[in-house]
Each structure stands twice: as C-alpha cells, then as structure tokens.
Amino acid sequence: MATWLVCAILLISGGLKIIDSTGSIKALDAHNPILFLTYRQVELLVGLLELALCGWCLVSKGDVWCMSSVLGYSLCLIGYKIVHSYLDPSEPCHCLGVLLGWWPWLKANEDQITWALIVALIFLSVYRLFSIANRENCCESTVSRSDEM
After folding, report:
1. How far is the CA of 133 from the CAs of 27, 33, 142, 147, in angstroms?
2. Does the pLDDT value for residue 146 go beyond 50?
3. How confident is the model over 72-84, as a mean pLDDT?
4. How many domains would you assign to the chain?
C-alpha cells in the first residue's frame, strides 16, 4: 500500500511538472538561482525524475533501493525548499507547478500542500523500509530456529 501511495504522489507531481514545463508561461523562462537552469528546464528534469522513480518503484515493487532513493529525493526537496526560501523569500516555490494556479484554494495553500506531500513521501518510504527490514528479520529468525532443531 505504501508503495502505491508513493507512486501516486510521484506520478501526479511529475506529470504536473512536465505538463507545466511545456506551457507558454514566461515566468518559467527565468533562471533558477539554485540550479542555474531555467525554471522550465528544472520542472522538466524533476518531472522526468519523479516519473522515473515512480516507474522504478512499480517495477521493483518498492524494494529497499527504490524506497531509499525516494527518501533521498524527499530530503533533497526539503533542502531545495529551504535554500529557495532563503534566497528569495518573496517568491514561493512552485513545486506543484504554476499550472495549478487556476484553483484559488490550491494556490493559497500550495506551500502547505507541498510540505505535506514531502512529509508523506518521507513517512511512506521510511514505513516501507521498516516493513522490509521487519520481514527480512522475521524470515532470518525463522530460518535460524529451524537450523537449531
């Protein structure tokens, strides 16, 4: 279940970024102060990365390496948001893409929603990693008990 939720978040977020990067919004042609690319290029690359992570999680069924990568990616997002807010506190981070600006409620709560999704990715990936570790420990203890008999 955790793997499916991670994939849903990555699929929706990545898809929105890719759709947004193909739009005609002039603000996307400005240079990102952190990554030294245009916001359009950043959205396209990050959207592709999120879709690749989603695909990997589906193919690997949420194995340790995949969930570790999702956790690492989520931590990078936190770092990016912190640095972005430090460099330009007046400009919110449009991590969900400016395409969603048409819905007033979403636009007003975009930052809180973005943080909630990042925390959800972290929680779900850590939960999945612990469940994998617990399953492996359970199997090892069963094998060692049968060896003792």
Report:
1. 45, 39, 14, 21
2. no
3. 93
4. 1
Q: What are phi and psi of 121, to 5 degrees?
A: -60, -45
Average of per-residue pLDDT values in the chain: 84
Please tell me the distance from the alpha carbon of residue 15 to that of residue 44, in angstroms, as a whole number: 9
Q: Are 55 and 65 in contact (CB under 8 A)?
A: no
Domain assignment of residue 41, given as a range: 2-148
Q: What is the pLDDT of residues 12-26, one digit of tens each?
A: 999 988 988 888 878
Count of alpha carbons within 13 angstroms of residue 87, beta-carbon side: 12
Q: Could you give the CA distance from residue 5 to residue 85 in angstroms, rounded to a whole number?
A: 28
Answer yes or no: is pLDDT of 148 > 70.
Answer: no
Task: Please tell me which residue, 75 or 88, carries the higher pLDDT value.
Answer: 75
pLDDT of residue 141: 56
- Cα–Cα distance, 99 to 130 (Å, whole number): 36
Contact in structure between 110 and 92 (CB atoms under 8 Å): yes
Q: Which of 84, 121, 110, 95 is nearest to 21 (CA)?
A: 95
Residues 100-130: b if buried by 16+ CB within 10 A, e if exposed: eeeeeeeeeebeeebeebbeebbebbbebbe
